[in-house]
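1st attempt posting a full record on here, be nice pls
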Amino acid sequence: MKRTLLTLPFLVFVIFSHAFEGMWIPSMLDAVYDDMKAKGLKLSKEEIYSLNNSSLKDGIVLFGGGCTGELVSKEGLLFTNHHCGFDFIQYHSSLEHDYLKDGFWAKNRSEELPCPGLTATFIVEMRDMTTEVLTQLKEIPDAKNNLASALNSIYANILNKTELPKNCKAVIRSFNYNTQYFMVVSKTYTDVRWVGAPPSCIGKFGGDTDNWVWPRHTGDFSVFRIYANEENEPADFSASNKPFQPKHYFPISLKGTQAGDFTMIYGFPGRTEHLLTSAGVKYNHEYLAPMRIEFRKKNLEVIDAAMRSSDQLRIQYAAKQSDVANAYKKWQGQVLGLNKFNAIALKEKEEMQWSSIAKSKDMEASYQDLLERIHKMYLAPENLQVNLYLAAYTEFVFYGPEIFGMYQSLAEIINSPTILQDLKGNKFQSQSEEWMKAVRLIMKDFDKSTDCKRLLALAPIWEKYTKGVVHFEDRKLSREMAAQQWYNSSLVLDTAMVFDVLRNTNFISTKKLVKLKKKLEKDVLYNKSMELEKAYDTWIPLKKNINNTTETLMRDYTFFIQDLRGDKEKWADANSTLRLTYGQVEGSAPVDGMAYTPFTTTQGILDKFSTGNPDFEINTKLYDLLKKKEFGSYGVNGVLPVCFTGSNHTTGGNSGSPALNGNGELIGINFDRTWESTMSDIYFNSEICRNVMVDSRYVLWVIDIYGGAGYLLTEMTLVK
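the predicted structure (as tokens):
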């Protein structure tokens, strides 16, 4: 039967789009709003996103650099995940105040703890600038070959003419490989204080065993408060600041949910790659992910052993372990899911479909040429080498032994005289204090023996993937003996010497500098750090060329697909901008013979505890409360809900996002995906991809009955 041109695009759209797939820009919901209403949404578009009136967006913040938080009271009280606040929980913890183990609840506002560097950013507006940017691009000669420069010029021109509200800033962000552009206007608050969090036996219950896994029983939440000045505007930390008064905060539902109920997640998803070609998926799946997993596995073996050996190391390495472990298990799940559904073959099938449509429009040759050029950028041996070298550097230097970063930071100062020469008097004193503060912060959570073991574990993997461009073997000594000797004689670990460099205004012009440099020439780890940095500096220009060419080709490819698709609107890949995704409460059946229900209860905590697995340990207080079923008004028929799953399309960055019902009430806090769902960054399958949320009733129970901080609930609006 002859296929018409109208039928082909429609078929492709159906084949490669799934129910609930997509992370939608909240100012552009026309494509899905009717479906959202049909699924159970009770709100207008204006109530979800509005410029002139209070809307849901005004109760949501970008928490720190990579999570989401939501306002739950008119006094600036904020919920996010335990793992999102974890760095600050660890920062405030010590052997004397082991908040990681015991939890913390401020008894009043004077006990709320400042969190230096923590920010909460509200989105004021997301304005579509696509037409204006593309129009100006057409007017710039050779813009395609100098896209970054051309865009920067256009952005500056637009932003210079834009009037902003008080204390706001604006940036223009590109979407989908520079095929769409939005101006994002935001306001950032810098006085954010820690109000409380449960102990890790609640906030991290299940540990790495349960991470990315269902059924889940984790109370993954923490509580903060935003402060502002007398005018309710951003201000640095001050005792005179007042709790922030939000335009909107979320009422909290005590009614719970049922299977099939409408849900939506509103937050800042980090990155998805659903537009990748089969070559891009192949690179990620067959080359990049296996290497990363190998690095992380060995790294975690060292860190986990250290943390088990003493409370001091457990506290020091808790945040680092979390950073390494989270992605490690995610990548394992992603590989599993992409294998299970043969995602590369699915992408190849999709490309064949597009090729058929292109052929019907006499565009097949152009399409195939573009696809082949993209394939080369990902999989040509010379490009593979550079990409994997830099990915290995990230795992080895940025996530591995911390000593490399220490040396590189020191070298930046002593080898760049202008850094010190340009700083005079009070200016130098202020910068010197900041440097020394940074050193103290690093050394507070640094252990020489553990760092040495991380080097020993990761160096062979580094050498394997980079062909020994910087090796860590000694001609005379074993690896172990050599590494121990290097660390024992390390100059950068002599904090007295480092402080002498950082506090001495005349250091740069004295003989001390010459003497120090001569000593460093004999310091093996210093030399290795410099060799690593030199290799990095060599690869970076090559990587930029690869990325720029790939971005240009993918931009052409995306425009090409848009032309073939016609008027069918597709969602833009996540890029840490504000998005809304929707679905429903539902379980899944990801494995033959196994079906997951969408709800868990506290009975599962007790059942897991009985296994003896250390990841399922709970303290006596929690055990007694659960055993006696002291659930207060938060239980339902003698059961206390803990977590539930939904078919909302989420990714990293959605951690801490509000899970909302059709009325815009908080029913939970998003914190994870199931293991089979981690592939959804590349390939979303509506039958198995599920996000995981902690039930708002369990959150309130922990705050009130377990934590004894029920006074916080008097600020909230509870819907019964």
